[in-house]
């Protein structure tokens, strides 16, 4: 990949999108020799405004606020459910000053997009927390409840566009699971994928799609402002602070938590991995992170090192089975 110096030499001829696509790799080259305690760059493999972006920036602020790492940057590399970012991240080289936010969405996209690399091609560091998905509609929508939508969805599934993140990601899985639980063939889904929750919101408010699916926090401000109505949340039980019934409370047997975690590039040393885990553990014990969990209605689910690696292996298999079963 061209270095940043060469990219700058032809800046006028290179589009902003291409530069953004190479940003994380260039950042990895420019931080050579940095240690996790002095400088970190966190890749959010999605567009600004999405769930990974939010998680990366909350992680950034907690590290800064707790004085664990003062120089923390976040770069966005959107596309294909995070697999474009994943592909670039695995090419950075063994740089312990680099981390990438990941989670359930990427597992589905790896399979759906036939990605040549997977999460086990990185160095797993830690699972941080779980959040939940919501199905939402504009405030002016005639659908007041989940059943209102399911009633018309059953009549003609293809007539109702459902917007969410990348193919095979959590949003897509939730749409498929909801369809199946409601007696609809998941193969009849009219699913429109977007790079992140911000784009889903734009599509929903412009009536490009009729139903939106994404993480609760990606829609929270619009829900609280009354511009959107949440029909169901994908938690296993009611979530304190979220005034939306679960699918199960409404007779639809669906629950799908969405975990967020961090991986490092392949090839770092065991000592560097331990140091990164230590940084995350210090952050997880901070009042700043406790505040982030509370504000975002996240459930702490810290898991590190080899246990996190084992979790990824098992969870990827679970997601793959869902995708195959639903025919997505």
Automatic annotation (TrEMBL):
InterPro entries listed in its UniProt record: BUG, Bug_dom1
Keywords, alphabetical: Signal
Secretion signal, residue range per the UniProt entry: 1-20
Pfam families, per database record: TctC (PF03401)
Highest taxon listed in the record's lineage: Bacteria
Transmembrane segments: none
PANTHER family associated with the record: TRICARBOXYLATE-BINDING PROTEIN, UPF0065 PROTEIN YFLP
Family named by the database record: Belongs to the UPF0065 (bug) family.
This protein's name: Tricarboxylic transporter
Organism lineage: Bacteria, Bacillati, Actinomycetota, Actinomycetes, Pseudonocardiales
């Amino acid at each position: 990949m061209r270095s940043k110096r060469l990219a700058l030499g032809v800046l006028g001829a290179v589009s902003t999108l291409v530069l953004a696509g190479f940003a994380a790799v260039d950042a990895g080259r420019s931080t050579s020799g940095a240690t996790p305690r002095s400088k970190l760059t966190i890749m959010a493999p999605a567009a600004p405004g999405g769930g990974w972006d939010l998680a990366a920036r909350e992680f950034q602020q907690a590290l800064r606020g707790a004085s664990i790492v003062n120089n923390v940057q976040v770069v966005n590399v959107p596309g294909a459910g995070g697999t474009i970012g994943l592909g670039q991240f695995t090419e950075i080289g063994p740089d312990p000053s680099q981390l990438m936010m990941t989670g359930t969405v990427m597992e589905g996209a790896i399979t759906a997009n036939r990605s040549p690399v997977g999460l086990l091609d990185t160095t797993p560091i830690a699972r941080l927390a779980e959040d939940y998905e919501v199905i939402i509609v504009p405030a002016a929508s005639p659908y007041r409840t989940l059943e209102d939508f399911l009633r018309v969805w059953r009549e003609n599934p293809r007539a109702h566009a459902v917007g969410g993140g990348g193919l095979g990601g959590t949003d897509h899985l939730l749409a498929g699971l909801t369809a199946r639980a409601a007696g609809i063939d998941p193969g009849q889904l009219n699913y429109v994928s977007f790079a992140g929750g911000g784009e889903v919101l734009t599509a929903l408010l412009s009536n490009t799609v009729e139903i939106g699916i994404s993480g609760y926090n990606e829609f929270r401000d619009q829900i609280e402002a009354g511009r959107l109505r949440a029909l169901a949340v994908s938690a296993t039980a009611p979530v304190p602070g979220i005034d939306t019934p679960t699918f199960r409370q409404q007779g639809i047997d669906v629950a799908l938590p969405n975990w967020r975690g961090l991986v490092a590039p392949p090839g770092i040393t065991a000592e560097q991995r331990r140091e990164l885990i230590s940084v995350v553990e210090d952050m997880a014990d901070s009042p700043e992170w406790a505040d982030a969990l509370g504000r975002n209605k996240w459930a702490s689910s810290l898991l590190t090192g080899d246990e996190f690696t084992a979790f990824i292996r098992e969870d990827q298999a679970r997601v793959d089975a869902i995708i195959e079963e639903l025919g997505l």
